[in-house]
Write a structure and sequence with these properties.
This protein has 117 residues and is an alpha+beta fold. The protein is built from two helices and seven strands; from the N terminus they run ββαβββαββ.
Length: 117
């Protein structure tokens, strides 16, 4: 599903592929690389809130033994920075839904880390 906004000049459409690219790039920064990954088979949700700011939600898998809050906050902060660079506006919030912890395999988890801006 794409993020669509009507303006006086027409429709602005941002595909989830753009958000996926931003999230994957954020997961490859030094403090996150090899420790947090975009979860396969889980979607990315983006919508505008009542103030016209983006609210983003995505699912991730984290490496076993790593501090989940620190990793999720670092990834969310980098995603927010990249969104601001592309759009000129910080997102309202980024929610990272941790769906698994990776060691030899992936153990299911259900935890949400919310970062508001």
């Amino acid at each position: 599903m794409a993020l669509v906004k009507e303006t006086d000049y027409g429709k602005i459409t941002i595909s989830n592929e753009v958000f996926k690219e931003v999230i994957e790039n954020a997961c490859s920064v030094p403090e996150c690389k090899g420790k947090i990954w975009l979860a396969p088979k889980h979607g990315i949700e983006a919508e505008y809130n009542e103030d016209g700011k983006v609210e983003l939600k995505f699912s991730a898998v984290v490496k076993f033994g790593e501090p989940i809050n620190r990793l999720c906050n670092a990834a969310a902060d980098d995603v927010a920075r990249r969104i601001k660079l592309r759009s000129g506006q910080m997102p309202a919030s980024i929610k990272v839904n941790v769906v698994g912890v990776k060691s030899k395999g992936i153990a299911k988890r259900s935890m949400e880390v919310i970062r508001e801006y």
